[in-house]
């Protein structure tokens, strides 16, 4: 039986669903995944196509007149434990309650807007474990130039359910400051860089930028008015500059570290850009990890195969070893996801290794992951980059 991710489209037959599906297909392309791994199901073919033992996610499109459809299907999916995202359209007070049926009243919904397309597509990918569900952002800035805007973006991104790193708000008392900063940067999806005129005059800001290059972390750069972006070489990054003008700041104040604020429309644009960059950057880092592992495997005379779903396999005797590229710091949820997706690996006996880049991850975490390897499941373990060659030379 072929493993598929089932996207179930319910509710009103509206044009907006085609916009969402189009953006979702773009995201799959960005991730280097074939469109064939996704099965689109609607109320007309759900009886024949839906499989309860394969991953599923539902979109329910509301009706502005309150004509609710597919309620019996919603009830069945909820009983199966399938998440359904309600999408409504009107901005009027009470629109969600009118457009979305009561059976979905306890689900968090999203009002459809063009600038929410990336967010909706990413939510679908997260539900299928094709895009990690942790949404981690790192804000890089110079304190004596842009503190107030760093705090403004921290609060705005947090309100969109991002886990945001801001040095003054995130590092706990007694933690080694620089070690924790590098650790958190390693685990982020995108860096929002406030490119002020003297950003690179700060030693630590320059170090953060260099570290982003080494780790190949994508940048959303906010370039201050009258500042030449050429003084930052972004050729090695997935980098998206936003050139700011004076009137992008409240009252045209852009050079006061304590009083400057971005206007709301620019803040919204930053959030949209971060959402757009996220999948592409994670895919790029995943590809780099796969390439590094394959090159070392070839040097060691091992034959590994890249599967369409972006993991690697190696068959030894009666066991299939599956190598899953893991961006950032492997978590227990990463292991759980690997266990849930066992059917995807197409073999009776499977051993899983979550491969990851351990550069700049704090020693206490690396020691913890080593301890888990020694004390828990033998068939799902982590494998850090510095140990790739040692592991691959064992056989």
Walk me through what this model shows.
This protein has 13 helices and 15 strands. The protein has 395 residues and is α/β, with parallel strands linked by helices. The chain has 3 domains: 123 residues, Rossmann fold (3-Layer(aba) Sandwich); 143 residues, Toll/interleukin-1 receptor homology (TIR) domain (Rossmann fold, 3-Layer(aba) Sandwich); 93 residues. Strands 2-1-3-4-5 form a 5-stranded parallel sheet, sandwiched between helices.
Main sheet attributes: strand count, strand direction, barrel closure: 5 strands, parallel
Strand and helix order: EHEHEHEHEHEHEHHEHEEHEEEHEHEH
CATH topology of the largest domain: Rossmann fold
What is Rg? Answer: 23 Å
Total number of strands = 15
Please indicate the count of domains: 3
Q: Name the shape in a single word.
A: flat
Strand order of the largest sheet: 2-1-3-4-5
CATH architecture of the largest domain: 3-Layer(aba) Sandwich
Mean pLDDT rating: 88
What's the helix and strand layout?
Blueprint: E1 5-11, H1 16-30, E2 38-42, H2 46-49, E3 56-61, H3 71-79, E4 83-88, H4 95-99, E5 110-111, H5 117-127, E6 136-140, H6 143-159, E7 163-165, H7 167-170, H8 177-186, E8 190-195, H9 203-215, E9 218-223, E10 239-243, H10 264-299, E11 305-306, E12 312-316, E13 319-325, H11 332-340, E14 350-356, H12 363-375, E15 380-384, H13 388-392
Parallel strand pairs: 1-2, 1-3, 3-4, 4-5, 6-7, 6-8, 8-9, 9-10, 13-14, 14-15
Antiparallel strand pairs: 11-12, 12-13
Helix pairs in contact: 1-5
